[in-house]
Structures are given as C-alpha cells and as structure tokens.
Design brief:
The chain has helices at residues 3-14, 18-40, 43-59, 70-105, 111-129, 133-144, 149-156, 160-180, 186-191. By secondary structure, it is mainly α. The protein folds into 2 domains: 1-105, Orthogonal Bundle (Rna Polymerase Sigma Factor, Chain: A); 110-193, Winged helix-like DNA-binding domain superfamily/Winged helix DNA-binding domain (Arc Repressor Mutant, subunit A).
Length: 193
C-alpha cells in the first residue's frame, strides 16, 4: 500500500469506514503478526495479540493522524499488548507454582478435592454457555476446534475483524464473569485464559 493510499484510508478510517480498516489490516497484518510471533513464539497467542492490536486500532481510530504512517502507531499498540502479556505470564507462573506447591502439600487422591475441582470446571462451562450464541460459536470454533480467525470468518461468512471482536469480547466476558463470583479460586481464572 502506497503512503498516498494509506493516507486516504487513514482519513476514511477516522470516520469509521470499515473497508479502509480492512485494507489497512490486510496490508499490516503480516508484519504485526511476524513481530508478535518473533517475541512470543506461540502462534495462537501471537494471533490473539495481533487481533487485539487491530481491534484497539479500530477503537482509537479517531486518534490517528492521517499525515503520519500508521505502522509506528500500530507497533506501539502491539508492543504494549506483548509487554502486558509477558507480565501476565510471569504473574501466572508464580501463582501456578504457588498453587502447585499448596496442592502437592495436600493429599492429591482426596476425592473431596476432586469433586470441588470438577464443580469449578462445570461452573466455567456454565460461564461459556452464557455467551451470546454467535459469540459462543466463534469462541468454541477458535478455542476448542483450533480454527484460526480467517477459517471461522470463511465458515460463517463474516469478516475477520468481526471474528476478532467476538473473540476479544468473549474473553473479556468470561474473565469478568468468573471474577465476579468470588468463591471461585484464582487458579480457575488462570486455566480459562
């Protein structure tokens, strides 16, 4: 995409033009995804961060200066997501180690603990069932069937950006849903992310 065309697309994007957004997406997606994959080394997480970065670009479209190339702005958003992900991984690792040491200190064959664990997993399943139908379908196709956004978009005859928005909103809903039920142990939240 030439700078001249990008400038026109950025001007239209600021006004909410989805076609311009998609042209920018297809033009910059490979570079953003490659950048994420280089730093994260996990294809699924790199794709999620890439999707989140483009969703954030859409949300912040009115802050875009069409006179400037979009690349640096987009990479700043992406770097922030990567940094947050790496901090989150570090926190989760510490919490999992703490949970693991606490769990190992107790009897792992305790049937009561196993029942409680299964109840928590059932509760997590209930949270997923509370998603709106289309969002639940997209969530299951992505996380349970392992399909990528473009495959889901093709199957459901919707745009990839719509798939990405549904996935982001599903993750936000599940995190909030589980967080509001304080009797749920924190480790279950970690398992579902």
């Amino acid at each position: 995409m030439s700078l001249r065309n990008e400038k026109k697309d950025l001007e239209r994007l600021r006004k909410g033009d989805q076609a311009s957004f998609e042209r920018i997406y297809y033009s910059h997606h490979p570079k953003v995804y490659g950048f994420c994959l280089k730093l994260i080394s996990d294809r699924q997480i790199a794709e999620e961060i890439t999707e989140d970065a483009f969703v954030k670009l859409w949300e912040k479209r009115q802050n875009i200066d069409p006179a400037l190339p979009i690349g640096p702005f987009l990479f700043k958003i992406t770097k922030d997501y990567i940094w947050n992900h790496l901090k989150k991984i570090s926190r989760e690792t510490k919490r999992r180690e703490q949970y693991s040491s606490n769990y190992q200190a107790s009897d792992p064959r305790n049937p009561e603990q196993e029942l409680i664990f299964n109840d928590y997993l059932d509760f997590a399943e209930t949270a997923i069932e509370n998603l709106p139908e289309k969002r639940k379908l997209i969530y299951n196709l992505h996380y349970r069937s392992g399909l990528e956004s473009r495959e889901i978009a093709s199957r459901l005859d919707i745009s990839e950006s719509t798939v990405r928005v549904h996935l982001m909103k599903a993750r936000q809903f599940l995190h909030k849903y589980l967080k509001t039920h304080l009797e749920i142990p924190f480790w279950l939240l970690l398992l579902l992310q």
